[in-house]
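Service request form, structural biology core

Requester: graduate student, group of Dr. S.
Request type: structure prediction, single chain
Budget code: on file
Notes: please return the result as structure tokens.

Sequence provided:
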Amino acid sequence: MKIQFLRPSYFIWIIVPLALYLVYLAFGLPHAIWSYDWRDNGTHDPFVTRWYTRCTLAGPYGLFTIYPVDGKCPWLRFYKKQEGG
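Core staff response, request fulfilled:
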């Protein structure tokens, strides 16, 4: 009976952390919606379509505020660490 100490199948788990690290390098870390402002149409109907004017996303690198031109806020966005001041 021959014992193999190093098989290629022992290292298959490395693919997942390596893929996550490559996604981090390419896109950054995820930031989720934290708050938003919208234009009120005066109907006070909770089911009416809203037009968002400001969206703030929070994540590991802080808060990022965006002003959408299409009236829609993303639920999740990726940001990289900002260098400098």
